[in-house]
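Internal ticket #5521
Category: modeling
Description: The requester needs a full-assembly model to guide mutagenesis choices. All entity lines are attached below as received. Residue total reported by intake: 1062.
Assigned to: D.W.
Attached entities:
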Amino acid sequence: MDLTTPNTAAACGKSSCTCASSKPIPLSDSMPLQDFDYGTPQSLSETAVTLDIDGVTVTVPAGTSVLRAALESGVNVPKLCATDSLEPFGSCRLCLVEIEGRRGYPASCTTPVEAGMKVRTQSDKLQDLRRNVMELYISDHPLDCLTCSANGNCELQDMAGVTGLREVRYGYAGENHLDAKKDESNPYFTYDPSKCIVCNRCVRACEETQGTFALTISGRGFGSRVSAGEDQAFMESECVSCGACVEACPTATLQEKSVVKRGQPTKAVVTTCAYCGVGCSFKAEVKGNEVIRMTPYKNGQANEGHACVKGRFAWGYATHPDRITKPMIRKSITDAWTEVSWEEAITYAASEFRRIQGKYGRDSIGGITSSRCTNEETYLVQKLVRAAFGNNNVDTCARVCHSPTGYGLKQTIGESAGTQTFASVAHSDVIMVIGANPTDGHPVFASRMKRRLREGAKLIVVDPRKIDIVDGPHIKASYHLQLRPGTNVAIVNALAHVIVTEDLLDETFIAERCEPKAFLQWREFVTQAENSPEASAAITGVPAETVRSAARMFAAGNNAAIYYGLGVTEHAQGSTAVMGIANLAMATGNVGREGVGINPLRGQNNVQGSCDMGSFPHEFPGYRHVSDSITRALFEDAWQVELQAEPGLRIPNMFDAAAHGSFLGLYVQGEDIVQSDPNTHHVAHALSSMECIVVQDIFLNETAKYAHVFLPGASFLEKDGTFTNAERRISRVRKVMPPLAKYADWEVTLLLSKALGYEMNYAHPSEIMDEIARLTPTFSGVSFDLIDRLGSVQWPCNEHAPEGTPIMHVDTFVRGKGRFIITQFFASQEKITHKYPLLLTTGRILSQYNVGAQTRRTENVQWHDEDKLEIHPHDAEDRGIHDGDWVGIESRAGNTVLRAVVSDRMQPGVVYTTFHFPESGANVITTDSSDWATNCPEYKVTAVQVMPVEQPSDWQQAYSRFNQTQLNHLHNRQTAVLDGATAK
Amino acid sequence: MDLDNLITMANQIGDFFASLPDHEEALTSIAEHIRKFWAPRMRAALLHSLDTPDSAALKPIVREALTLNRARLEPATV
């Protein structure tokens, strides 16, 4: 590893980077394994300071440390406790320098540059001092470099070399830590205290980067040791296994178990995480085609070098034995599967679709695109449905999560997307989090938010549960509006009422930027007494004074930002609540600059992308309605086929139509509707009524148990393409191993399309993106080349914004003037009754992801191996329920059984569970109540009763039998006898 | 299609737009929403029910909107 030249060129790659490299270098597929470490964080000051380092003139921003200034100009001052993701610490004393006119040997990491400074980085005295420091370190350190897991990638090793250490004059007979026991409790990394040099990087990373504060140093002086929790094993402490400490550790002390087992990787490729909507940039570090580890990429704009347990460690599912790698077909779901060649499977699927259309009509089949597959892949599936199927029956998982965002934001501000970057939160003064649990669902973004809160920004949380962010290490919500599920619109109206009646409106902004008539109508509506906090209190359960204080705080903030999630959208009034949120932002002038905005925390890695790509029954790519004849003509011309002008079926409508016999064929790519959609009985019944279900996925998921054709899919490690995160940021996904089943998902869609008689030709996903760019004004400047050059790009990206658009609606709204919309509160049809007196709400946690198909097949099950029902102590006591008891949960849709957790995070009258395990049957209980505008299911509000039980529910027993039968159909599958041409 | 479900959905749409002060605007908005987001078979089923007692649960504002805009909402071919 070459340390003599700072790899500045490869380390940056952003055209806006202020490091000393002369020009950005495109990200090629293969990256240097180690990114250059500049020692201390970059300063964003606009003032330049010029100084002299070893006789060379250097100019850097004010606030830069002398250490960083030296490193940026190619002078590698030794360092150990300094790293550029963390504030300087000044403990190792290796980075000492001599500064003319100053006494002694200051640490360059804690010394800011000053104009005219003259620095000397090397001298006899500095040499001696540094060598003495190393001597002390090595006097209490194992000497097993050659067999150590960090061999070749150890900063201590490097510094021993640089300082010229030859002997340890203290000898090795004295007290030391060499016998310290390893902590292997965490499934992904080892903590070996015998190698620890107490540089504190891990402690600081857990504080500054992650914000969990799980680590500290216990003891003093020689006795100082890193302590997780209170000298506990890592797994027992508050550690959330984000890996920031492992990333920061300069030695083998905190090391990935995969590196210990397999050795150091030999190649790195930058790609994007396939879990949540933060879309962290990772370096997939491999040996051959084997992934050794995933490390967060420093220059990733969404995550800037941070990650969470899922993206960082839970990627082993890609090579899990459950992976299906050969296509399979069967005539009926009561038959065992038969493995067949790709050709036979595709031909069968295509012929079945055409047969069904021949018998039942052109509109009797449809497709569901995957929000986990790439933009190019989802574009192809909606193109296949429109051009090859000939209808608009295409939808995506956004239906069940953020479709209300799409509708609500389009109506109010003109674009179906969030307005900011994640980095924008660093400029917020007041942060309102509504119906989102970022520490669990968007952890890397939550770390950014927590950093800002520790700096003094204020927090308002609107959530029925006392989620972690309400009261955590060094952060506390000023106001927690703990409302009853289903009352978001009432609370939003109450907040608006206060802002209007107490004269807290931003009149200038409204006058300049918003439609006057709509605003006046809205103002009159919101002023009504029924929308006051006092009147709403009875509905929401939140005291009027809390609402008033929160509203005042929000309106008074210089920069106030709203972040919201599925706790807003998955409601009967989801779209209404989104519009209410937009109203609040416009009313207080909080749109169009850093630190403010309307921020939907979108769930999946590419749900934003699949929406952008037109995976909707009513919209072409770029959110243009299918009835818009100009747009339709554009696509008809490009695709050389006539396209339908009528909207197609949404996913819930597909099920209804299937149950009524008018929808009989479905092509599902990477989506598990049986597990994730509400009212499982209804979904299962619908699927059982269909004649041909084609599932394309990496595992045999719940939906595949109802399928007739199984096409093996590819994980994100096996293909090229792009994902778009919640910031509208389009990033590259790069292949690190060949697809296990031979084809990447986009190639499979091409095969199917060709077999249907509509041939599409693309040699590489970049050509698909080029076509998207030609046909979509907001994407017209996007290309793989551009993304390689810039690292990532936020749409809109076109001639108005050639390098993308970080903050939207800066001068005007996309629709011109912002539109206030009246948001009257209506109670959900899901009401509590005598029979069902509690409200069930659902959510996600940190370690498991959505339906759990990926995370259940990793060691993350050690944190969460079953879904449990959280219930408030009063409700538990009323029913004789104790912690750990089995309880039956019943709604008008069905019932299931879970283990109970008694928790005061809940409020009386509200229970909560997750949906990560199919056998939990969480969706057996959720109903068909849905958003009025988009049919987004009301997962967050289900009226239930909870009682102690002795045995699993009827559904669970039936599911258990069905599941076993289907697994037998898989295990007993006929393996194909394949000729050479089609064998894998 | 499940008519009860369609009527529930239509009523929810009606509730939302009924809050518009301008009644004409409300009627147009209801019809527009259904035209833009409902597949032909859903619209056909709902419109067909207007003439039958099955649509008794339909709210007056929705009935008015559908009746006024029937021609536009009727699918060309089902």
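Resolution: model delivered.
Comment from assignee: The helical segments of chain B are 3-18, 23-37, 40-49, 60-68, 70-73.
Ticket closed.
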